[in-house]
Amino acid sequence: MMPGEESSARKGESTMAVSALPARERAILCARIAADNRAKDVLVLDMTEIVRWVDYLVVATGASGRQIRSIADGIETAMKDLGDRKLGLEGYEHGEW
Questions:
Q1: Cα angle 4-55-23, degrees, rounded to a multiple of 5
Q2: How far apart are CA 97 and CA 90, in angstroms?
Q3: What is the mean pLDDT of the chain?
Q4: Which alpha helices (DSSP H) does the chain contain, by range?
Q5: Average pLDDT of the segment spanning 61-81
Q6: How wide is the angle at C-alpha 5 spanned by C-alphas 30 and 17, nearest 5°?
Q7: What residues pair up with 40 in beta bridges, in sequence order?
Q8: Which one of 19, 25, 41, 60 is separated from 34 by 20 to 30 angstroms, measured CA to CA?
């Protein structure tokens, strides 16, 4: 997705279109979910002028595998509710990324 572009929600996944929430606001939502799950050092990095394959990057630190999986689950659920879909997931079983 290019800066300023928003992908459309997949059919049947959500009543709220992804385009209704800009990329920046989705990144902030992910950061809030991480913070709500007691993540440390939560950062939202604006990547729009650096790379073309992502607009924002959210980085956070968790204290345990269980906590990191909880953060990942919360973010996945919120993004799915908005119609986003993940392209892949690595390290979930061990809570290591």
A1: 60
A2: 7
A3: 83
A4: 23-36, 65-81
A5: 94
A6: 60
A7: 61
A8: 19
